[in-house]
């Protein structure tokens, strides 16, 4: 079983499973995470989001992702494509379960596109942990970089690179604007 999880019946009186570490959050994790993330990149005039890949707002979102991984004791890494990974268990141990989404946005994008998948993934992991679920495979939560294509004109760059569907040389030819 990956570190950080324990078996047995959850201790619902404290909102956490028996044997848990302090960094695991209680059942209201979705709302608290959403409150932290919601103001980042919100445009004052339009109310929409401008979290363009690699912009200051996107970098703030990426720092938020890394902090969420750290708060749970998850192993954190950024791959050579700029995708962020938060791992529970050893990623080399075999068939991993991967969940997540992206945190960047289109111009004046909505609040839930992309970030909902990332926040929900962390919240789901928190709930499974609270229930004492044991994992038999590694689990990763990911934030794919530059999925919306708002800056470089091609959507899903991070996930395409990760899946081998975009050659690195082609990605290098993309231009800002």
TrEMBL record:
UniProt domain Peptidase M28: residue ranges: 94-161
A Pfam short name: Peptidase_M28
Cross-referenced InterPro entries: Amidase_Cbmase, Peptidase_M28
GO molecular function, one term: hydrolase activity, acting on carbon-nitrogen (but not peptide) bonds, in linear amidines
Keyword entries, A-Z: Hydrolase
Highest taxon listed in the record's lineage: Bacteria
Compositional bias ranges of the Polar residues kind: 11-21
Protein name in UniProt: M20/M25/M40 family metallo-hydrolase
């Amino acid at each position: 079983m990956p570190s950080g999880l324990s078996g047995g019946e959850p201790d619902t009186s404290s909102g956490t499973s028996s044997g848990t570490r302090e960094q695991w959050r209680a059942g209201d994790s979705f709302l608290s995470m959403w409150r932290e993330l919601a103001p980042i990149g919100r445009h004052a005039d339009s109310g929409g989001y401008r979290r363009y890949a690699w912009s200051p707002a996107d970098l703030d979102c990426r720092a938020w992702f890394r902090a969420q991984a750290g708060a749970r004791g998850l192993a954190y890494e950024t791959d050579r494509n700029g995708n962020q990974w938060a791992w529970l268990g050893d990623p080399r141990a075999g068939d991993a379960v991967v969940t997540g989404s992206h945190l960047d946005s289109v111009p004046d994008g909505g609040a839930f596109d992309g970030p909902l998948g990332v926040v929900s993934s962390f919240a789901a992991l928190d709930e499974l942990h609270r229930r004492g679920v044991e994992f038999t495979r590694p689990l990763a939560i990911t934030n794919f970089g530059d999925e919306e294509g708002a800056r470089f004109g091609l959507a899903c760059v991070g996930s395409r690179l990760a899946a081998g569907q975009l050659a690195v040389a082609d990605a290098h030819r993309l231009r800002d604007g």
